[in-house]
Amino acid sequence: MATANEASEPSLKETYNEAKLRQTQLDSLDPRSSSYKDTLQSIIDNFERCRQLIRQLALFSPNEEVEDIATQDLQYLTVDYNLAEMKIKTYSEDRLSSLQASLALLESFLTQLDNYGLLDSSNHKLYERFLEQRHGFRIVSSSNPEEKRKIKITRFQEEKALKQKLEYLRGESQKINIDDDTIRNLYLAEIALSVNRTFSSLDMITQELDILSHMRQVPTQASPSIDQREPTRSDGYSERLDGPMTMAGLGKKGGPLLSSSGKPLQPFTLTDKRTQLQQGVFRSGHNLPTMSIDEYLEEERRRGGIIEGGGNANAAQPEPDEDNMDEVDAATMKARQWDEFVEANPKGAGNRLNRG
């Protein structure tokens, strides 16, 4: 005899319908709002309650065929899938646990469907590949771009066809005189669409788990100390701008200012702590230049970094002596030859821009 508490608890059908109703409401809520988080948690609680009731009622058995399942019970085959999808949407501090739980639920969903023979040949191959590559599963295993594109298009077309079939069956199920076969086909279409989306979720989960595992490994690696980041020479020289032997390293341990004989090893200024803090706060946000452009050019000229001269091509040419007819004739011929050359070779004639 059932107790009053047991009688007051909602049935599997009521709990499942409540979870599905809240799922439709979730899409209209802002993911950042508290109402979204509360609704999401309520859906998760309802689906977890559905799982408990399914086990208590022993609705499914590995010894059965899909024909042995009652039509109204077919819809409960998607409980694990729906619960996994809701857990994927949770972004708590323990994201890793949520993804691992979703991965286990999706595997349980596919395993149960495979036992009932509800996976077609292509999805069955994907399921077997997932079992072999749980931690590195990808829908597209090939590196060939053309094959990747072909597989993605095929799966997109399959999902589109399943959505159209499901929409049609949902419309038929709203009619007054509806037969059992239509309802059964409706639930089977929902299962097929869930299978198609499951492999996409598995692909996404394994990628995110791989990223999270690498992120968790980074803090465990010992960070090198300041002295280990940059090798120094025996004389204390370092490429670091804030090294102990530089002005930026003043005040840091390991930056000697005076030798053992009292000789200053580097320039320094005696200031109090307050002055140092003020300089650190009000200093420029970038490194200021230490010399002007003219000083830099002069230094480069001194070091030989600027090439000057290059002959007397740019020097002022002497004017021919007007009284010397030979020089005048030679200058005239030279100018005439230059004009003829310019006329025969217009500017830009040699630059054809690869046009032949």
Automatic annotation (TrEMBL):
Q: Give the source lineage, highest ranks first.
A: Eukaryota, Fungi, Dikarya, Ascomycota, Pezizomycotina
Disordered: where is this region? Answer: 218-242
Ranges annotated as biased composition (Basic and acidic residues): 227-242
Q: Which GO terms describe its molecular function?
A: protein phosphatase 2A binding
| GO CC, one annotated term | cytosol
Any one GO BP annotation for this protein: regulation of dephosphorylation
Q: What is this protein called?
A: TAP42-like protein
One Pfam match: TAP42
Coiled-coil zones: none
Q: Which organism is it from?
A: Exophiala spinifera
* InterPro entries tied to this protein: TAP42/TAP46-like_sf, TAP46-like
